[in-house]
Amino acid sequence: xxxxxxxxxxxxxxxxxxxxxxxNHIYFLGYLNPLVYLLYVAWFPVxxxxxxxxxxxxxxxxxxxxxxxxxxxxxxxxxxxxxxxPAVLRFVFGVNYEFQSFKLYNxxxxxxxxxxxxxxxxxxxxxxxxxxxxFNQFGLILMKTIQTTLFTFVLAVLLSFLFSSRKK
Length: 168
Prior knowledge:
By secondary structure, this protein is mainly α. It has one domain. The chain is built from 6 helices and no strands. The protein is globular and about 45 Å long.
């Protein structure tokens, strides 16, 4: 088996179990729940089989929805983020993304942070829009999105530092 495949499988199940067992039970300030399983999308190899990526993102969202009884909200949000990821990569990293030798760990901290923030913001906006599903409550959707995005972003950056590969 390829070592990259094994790493992706470990990330998949590690983030799934961490979200279900640990992060789904964290409510900072009583209501902020971090959704760090999205790191699977951010950390997935850039130039890899897109079909496998979309299907594994679907499976991650579906397994999370089944375990948390959330009616496919996570699945829809992670699929949209997985689908738009190439556009976000192109936007943040520009022409460098197009090269086959592009590696996410060779980019600056600022670029990685912007990339991660855009993915998290998009994901959370979709999650809370689908959860509340009432655009008369747009202020509530926006408030929950911004607060949870910031909390998840801080945790995601910390986890990225903790589990980053020190290749250079």
